[in-house]
Amino acid sequence: MSEILDLNEIRQQITVLDQELLTLFAKRRALTLNVAKSKVQQIRPIRDQQREQELLVRLIKHGKTLGLDAHYVTSVFQTIIEDSVLNQQAYLQSLANPNIQVPTVSVAFLGNKGSYSYLASHRYFSRRAEKIIESGCQNFADILQQVESGQVDYGMLPIENTSSGSINEVYDLLQHTNLSIVGEITQPIEHCLLTAVNTSLDKIRTIYAHGQPFAQCSNFLDKQKNIRIEYCDSTADAMAQASELQDETIAVIGSEEGGQLYQLHALEKSIANQRENHSRFILVARKSVEVAEQIPAKTALILATGQKAGALVECLLVLKEKGINMCKLESRPIQGRPWEEMFYIDVEANLKSFALQEAINTITQHTNFIKVLGCYPIEHISPTNVPSDEI
């Protein structure tokens, strides 16, 4: 009969293994950066999804011989692959834009520490800067003003959510700014009901939150009785109020990660209408960026066609003819011009590409106004698919 180890000894062995894993992860990341360096002159795409798939299949087969579940192996290595791709992209972007690589950046975002915009800002710059100077703002207009005036280097703005849709106020503000979109990031939105003290759901009488979380958690809120809704300028403001009041009848909707910064704990988790809830953020700056040819790029356009029948269709057909994929189309009214629309279009193409340049020149003939809002790397890394018979 094998000797049963003491619990503390088992935990100590796990700690040693965890440290060894971190060392190996760091070594693997360094090697993938060397891969990126080898692609600088060859202009080869960052991703080779066929090779990624073959890698995962080999790892799954080997994992099974070690008693590891295929889904577990797939999940771990998809995360590793995503990290590798994003780090290679960040490296190539640093070469393409040497003038903006600095150890410290300043960023304006909605709310204060703990807001989803705060979390998105820190996540985006974790690969790009050693230090972030934070500037919390009370509204989206203040964010743009701080960037335009040079008070900060960048502004982080939520643009759309998988549950509540587009954030129209941001689209409206983009009509009137000269800033460029230079980046994007998709932030998981994991809404929880947070409290400052130990309490129970039946005792809650007031819930604080920003308007977006309320909309995204409407199904949960509709089931609650005798609860008053208090709108706040940001999720961070809501958490700060709950933390200050220390009241068992008060709760706030926010992330568990953000709530920890205010000593709040989750009373209820996963309260959003959709289980897969994500917000897409855009990063704006005073100057545009160059996107390395090896990196998948997205270009944002804004255009107005006037009240001419079929004008928008003609513009979209140009994109189709050039083989350019449109991944976003949003219409917003033009202020002061009733019944006229401004269209925002995101396409998956580098602004420097011949196809997109030709498309923009042709589209210009069908529009009253067209403007490039920015070209930037695509940050969303789709997981590599594994054949079902291998799992």
From TrEMBL:
Domain spans labelled ACT: 300-377
EC primary class: lyase
EC number in record: 4.2.1.51
SMART domains in the cross-refs: CM_2 (SM00830)
PROSITE patterns: ACT (PS51671), CHORISMATE_MUT_2 (PS51168), PREPHENATE_DEHYDR_3 (PS51171)
One Pfam family, short name: PDT
Occurrences of domain Chorismate mutase (ranges): 1-92
Highest taxon of source: Bacteria
KW Lyase (keyword) present: yes
Membrane spanning stretches: none
Keyword terms of this UniProt record: Amino-acid biosynthesis, Aromatic amino acid biosynthesis, Cytoplasm, Lyase, Multifunctional enzyme, Phenylalanine biosynthesis
CDD domains reported in the protein's UniProt record: ACT_CM-PDT, PBP2_Ct-PDT_like
Domain Prephenate dehydratase: 106-286
Location of this chain's protein in the cell: Cytoplasm
Pathway participation: Amino-acid biosynthesis; L-phenylalanine biosynthesis; phenylpyruvate from prephenate: step 1/1
Reaction equation(s) it catalyzes: chorismate = prephenate; prephenate + H(+) = 3-phenylpyruvate + CO2 + H2O
UniProt cross-references to PANTHER family, sorted A to Z: PREPHENATE DEHYDRATASE P PROTEIN (PTHR21022), PREPHENATE DEHYDRATASE-RELATED (PTHR21022:SF19)
UniProt function note: Catalyzes the Claisen rearrangement of chorismate to prephenate and the decarboxylation/dehydration of prephenate to phenylpyruvate.
NCBIfam families in the record: CM_P_1, PRK11898.1
Annotated protein name in UniProt: Bifunctional chorismate mutase/prephenate dehydratase
